[in-house]
Design goal:
Layout (H helix, E strand, L loop, with lengths): L2 H13 L3 H14 L4 H15 L3 H13 L5 H18 L2 H8 L10 H14 L3 H13 L5 H16 L1
Length: about 160
Amino acid sequence: MPPATCSAQALDQANKGETDAAAKTLEELEKSGYGAYPVLARLRAATLLADKGDKTAAVAALDAVAADNAVPASIQDMARLRAAYLLVDSGSAADVAARAEAMSADANPLRHAAREALGLAAWKEGRAADASTLFKQIADDEQAPQNARQRARLMTELLGGS
């Protein structure tokens, strides 16, 4: 089956809740696909694991993509960021920081999302001042997407009131 058809089939299966069938189709795509299809199949398979509630396996799969030097750097960063967001709920702030800290630098295009994940992890651990600093950086950054700035302002207000 051509990779585009296989990819569409996997997405359709996942959208219908047929996660086992989707996982099998994605595995097939990872093995037989070409170009970006195999790595995209790996990313989607990790999302299926998270959707099924196996965040540990999902993070491990995303970490494997992030560590794969054959994968473009931008996709490695997206895998790190996705793992960081999953770990906001299921890991520690240190787990989140291990994946997102490097992307929070001022020049990094993913800084807003990385700072949001770091801020949420800090908040979860009761470090309101650290969380507030991170959310304020997002809210004050004119280059941040509007929705990210709105969420950051909301979080800053919540933290200020608590």
